[in-house]
Design a protein that fits this description.
Length: 174
């Protein structure tokens, strides 16, 4: 396809959801987002193991946010669980996204993480739109567009008999 300055629309350039370019882009987006979370989780695991004490401290400091007492209660009463779940959760979310397995489920948990990060950084000195919101939007995009079906294991998993016999499992896949 050559570019014609006189008429740039003379040849079709399709960017449809069923097109190859869209599939490549969604797979790339999924893998990059997965690497982002996998790297964050593995770094925490390698540095702190399952004792990531900053997680509970972060939640305890959210008393003046929109979520109010919920994260503070979690930080005070579920600290032992959060210390292990933050590095494990980030690592597993990242792995799921990178290989394209259980992408909607992984993205749901990623969206929960990003919601806490976004609200927890509620000073919003640079406005409501920041990197945490962008991460939340990435996870939302992967849920809606079922990016695990594009060059991911979810495309294969959905062909298994267990998924065919229980079609509601497809809501976790994709």
């Amino acid at each position: 396809m050559s570019y014609q300055a006189a008429n740039p629309l003379s040849e079709a350039f399709e960017l449809e959801l069923s097109g190859a370019l869209t599939a490549y882009w969604l797979a790339f987006l999924r893998v990059v987002t997965g690497w982002w979370f996998f790297h964050a989780g593995m770094t925490k695991l390698l540095e702190d193991g399952l004792s990531y004490t900053y997680g509970p401290m972060y939640l305890q400091g959210m008393e003046g946010t929109v979520l109010g007492p919920i994260p503070v209660w979690m930080g005070n009463n579920l600290g032992w669980l959060i210390e292990a779940m933050v590095p494990l959760g980030e690592t597993l979310i990242g792995l799921g996204l990178m290989v394209g397995a259980l992408v909607r489920l992984a993205s749901l948990f990623g969206a929960v993480f990003m919601t806490f990060f976004w609200v927890g950084n509620a000073g919003f000195g640079n406005g409501l739109v920041n990197g945490d919101l962008m991460g939340l939007l990435l996870f939302g995009t992967m849920i809606v567009l079922a990016t695990g079906r594009y060059y991911g294991l979810d495309a294969l998993i959905e062909r298994l008999d267990v998924v065919k016999n229980h079609p509601k499992l497809r809501y976790l896949l994709g």
